[in-house]
Structures are given as structure tokens and as C-alpha cells.
Design a protein that fits this description.
Layout lengths: L1 E8 L9 E8 L4 E6 L5 H9 L6 E6 L2 E2 L5 H4 L2 E4 L10 H8 L8 H10 L13 H14 L4 E5 L7 H14 L5 E5 L3 H4 L5 E5 L4 E6 H7 E6 L7 E7 L2 E7 L11 H9 L5
Parallel strand pairs: 3-8, 3-9, 6-7, 7-8
Antiparallel strand pairs: 1-2, 1-4, 4-5, 9-10, 11-13, 12-13
Helix pairs in contact: 4-5, 5-6
Length: about 270
Amino acid sequence: MITVNNLSFSYAGQREKVFDDFSLQLEGGRIYGLLGKNGTGKSTLLYLLSGLLRPAEGTVCVYGIEARLRRPEVLQETFLVPEEYDLPHVSLDEYVRIYAPFYPHFDREVLDSCLNDFELSSDLHLGSLSMGQKKKVYMSFALAAGTRLLLMDEPTNGLDIPSKSLFRKVVAQHITEGRTLVISTHQVHDVEQLLDHILVLSRRQVLLDKSVGDLTDRYVFEYRQPQETGDVVYAEPTLQGNAVVALRQAGQPETQLNLELLFNAVTKGLVK
């Protein structure tokens, strides 16, 4: 579905490249978690995928078409929710009237359902909303747009704790089979239950490209006493003992993925 080949990119006025000979492939119908340290290009990659940025070298292809061309048949199947944005001072109905026609699969019933799940009325004026409410409305519109590719940059920033739980519920209910969602985030515990594939980036390579199923088949994520080190790959001290990533043994029950622990192990080169 998405192919990034030998990508190089840097921002104007900056010597250091964000990406240098970087390649990646994404398959359709998955929910990807896009992780990386600050400055590794997570947001930049989303903008390159959407065609809002153009590579200096290499190609970024979505559905077999270069994203930089911004062809209508690609744009109508791609929606980007950036980390920061504003909405026009119009009613929601007016916003839908203006923007929904760009998306052939837009579904007003899905929009109203998402807003209801977020505990918002569909009779809204966008200029009177708080930042958190605007984020909920925009994410609801993004889900209702029905695009094959949905990109979200730090979607839970600015949401309170109950709203983060609602976000997971809304996404789980409205990402239908065949749609691909890429979530770039530092708030890993907000989204780890949604994801089925993990990508960890550095500037020049993909440090990890594995499905959640593969990871939980190979590793367990649990708390152990400090002396229990036999099959431990990575450990962090906590008040409950060591939080560990350990090799899963035959017959050992599967554990839930701990995304923060996994990320730390990957960036230290202990999980690949």
C-alpha cells in the first residue's frame, strides 16, 4: 500500500538530514504505531506520506502513485490529523457542507456516532470549542471521511484521561477492515491496546518493524524480582520489582505488550 524507497529529506536552512537513504513498506488494513525519539522524523514522515512535504531524493508512493504529485485519487483516500491545528469559526453543519464532498466515502452517521461517543452534540459551532473539543470533532470527521489511509500525529495530546479512553473506543469501533491507520505518538500507553503493528524509527533506518502478535509470541512483559534474570532481555527497576522484557518460554502464557518497555529495549539495541 505504501512504499518509501531511498528517501532523503531535510528542511530548508538545516544541514542535517531528517531522513537519509531511508526505506519502509506499510501494508494495508493495519493499525501502525509509529515511535521514535524526538527528531527522528515521525511527524515529517506523516507529512511526506500525505504529500504535504516532498522528498529531496527517493520516492514516497501511496497506492502506487507518488504522494508528492498530490493526485486527486490519492488525496480523497488520505486524511492527516496533525498534532496542532485550528478550525474555522463556522457551525459543524457548514464545515461538513464545505469539506465532506472532497471525500467520496464520507458518512454523516459515522460522524454523529463518533461525536456521541465523545459526549459531544452534533449541533456545534466550531469557534466556541475548547482545544480538546476541537480535537475530538476533527478526529470524528477524519474517521467519518472513510479514507483508506488515516494518519494521526500525537492524537491524544490535549485530551484528559477520560477522553483518552473514549478515543480508544471511538477508533476501535470505526476503523473498518481494509483501512490503514498510522499513529505517531510519544503517549504510548494511550494507544498500545489499539495497535497491531509497531514501527520504531531512527534517522536512517527502521529499528523495529514487527506485528504485535510476533512480539507477544517471542517476548513476555512482566514484573520480576531482581535476581530473576535468566531469560531477561531488558529490565528497568520499579517499586514493584524489575519491569522486564524476557524471552517467552514454551507453554508460558502470553502477556500484554508494554510499549514503553519495548521502545526502551529497542532503542538500546536489545530487541530487533
